[in-house]
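We modelled the chain as a single entity of 580 amino acids. Its sequence is:
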Amino acid sequence: MQEYNSSVAPALPQLPKALTGIEGLDEITDGGLPQGRPTLICGSAGCGKTLMGIEFLVRGIQEYNEPGVLMAFEETGEELAANVASLGFDLKALQDSKMLRLDHVHVDRSEIEETGEYDLEGLFIRLGYAIDSIGAKRVVLDTIEALFSGFPNQAVLRSEIRRLFRWLKDKGVTTVITAERGDGTLTRQGLEEYVSDCVILLDNRVIDQITTRRLRIVKYRGSTHGTNEYPYLITEDGISVLPVTSLRLDHQVSNNIMSSGVPALDDMFGMGGFYQGSSVLITGTAGTAKTTLAASFAEKTCEQGQRCLFFAFEESPQQLLRNMQSVSVDLKSHVASGLLRIEASRPTINGLEQHLVTLHRLVKEFKPDAVIIDPITNLITVGNIAEVRSMLTRLIDFLKVSGITAYFTALVSGRGQQQEMTDEGVSSLVDTWISVRDLEGIGERNRGLSILKSRGMAHSNQVREFLVTDRGVELLEVVVGPTGIVTGASRLTQQLQEHAQTLAAQQEADRRDRELERRRRVLEANIANLRTEFESVEEELRQINSHEQTRQQTLASGHQRIAAANPPRRNAPTAGENPK
């Protein structure tokens, strides 16, 4: 028997899928709906079943050039076209271009006379003609309850439902069937979800007087898919599903550095700022200049020619511009140049998902390099902590995937350890966490700043006192007293003491310099006296030497004269000599 080699086994064929074009839905379905198979969309009234079906058809025509058939059993074609016109869907134009076939089938239970031979053969003929007339690839049936309202016989009903789904499969069209949710079941009949290849449940719920919509994929034969509940919104652009976009954490990173807008704060980072595309969190109690720091970052970003999107939840744009002008942070000129866009509203105007969709839309329109949200704490008024954390997680992931620097401010309350934690619980998600706090002294209140973490770079561990002046935010140098770092009046006292000590040390140094100079002069005078005495002795010795030399010369001269006056006498001649 030949041994099986798994390394050369052919790859198994993947389930073909049809992209829906609906934002976020193709991501959680891992590529779209099952191609050539029926998908059931069920839910209660007002959850957007019909809209999702129509958008599936319209996106298929506009983005993938796949004609579609919409067979409605409750609303007429004119009513459907008017309902979706506000979303920018022109059904009449698509019909005129032969890309969409819209057929309204009126089903009146009183006109149906049930017999054992009653079936849906007429519907199959009508639907088959509509599909063949335009070569449709996509079909939407809205809704199946209206179609089967005339079947009181459950046996016949179940048989016809199975037959309908089998007919659609044999036809090879990608079908979306909408159904109303039943009591304790996904559909009224409780059968459709079992014969469908893909089931999507839409839910419209009200929590704390706020409407939220959730989408869940109940099943998907032959494919992996997201299993969680995902919020979705119905906006002017259609349906938008908001999945967590970066569960694998495989987004690209940048080595570029962005300035915080405060030079002294940049110096506290090992790289002179924080990484572009990272997330920054500023936490602190009320009145600790969080908004001022955020505005300084916005100004610096715009000065570098980059775009900044500023979400303000507490101040109007005019108030923000005026207040920042008082500390020499000029945002008005950048708004006028188009580099800065300020969006101001109360968080309670929308739910969390609507805020997230609004941010997605503005990011796509404005294409910013940085996004500021001031503060994220106010989002708790429209959701619980778990929901806010989930929303901020999706937001941070979205901005990171897009390479956009996120800058958040958050209000913290309490003292001590509680000040190191945010109510939203996102401090562990961000890359850089800066804490601003009150440094209360004797009868005064000062501000301090420290960097709690900064991923990927070294950073200062000091707590720096800072001031908000008419020149902006100014970080002061660290002053250490006998008991540690001092601030405020104690800082001034310590500086005065250090100045006095420095002055005293300088005066002592000057005294020592003067004493040294006096001693130098005395020594120089002594040296001059010794030099004078030495010169006198030297002159005296020179004169003695001169006299001695003169005496020696005189003696020598006398000897010469005496020798000249007494010449030597000649001796008597010897024998044999002839005297002259």
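As a brief sanity check on the tokenised model: The two ends are 164 Å apart (CA to CA). The chain has 15 helices and 24 strands.
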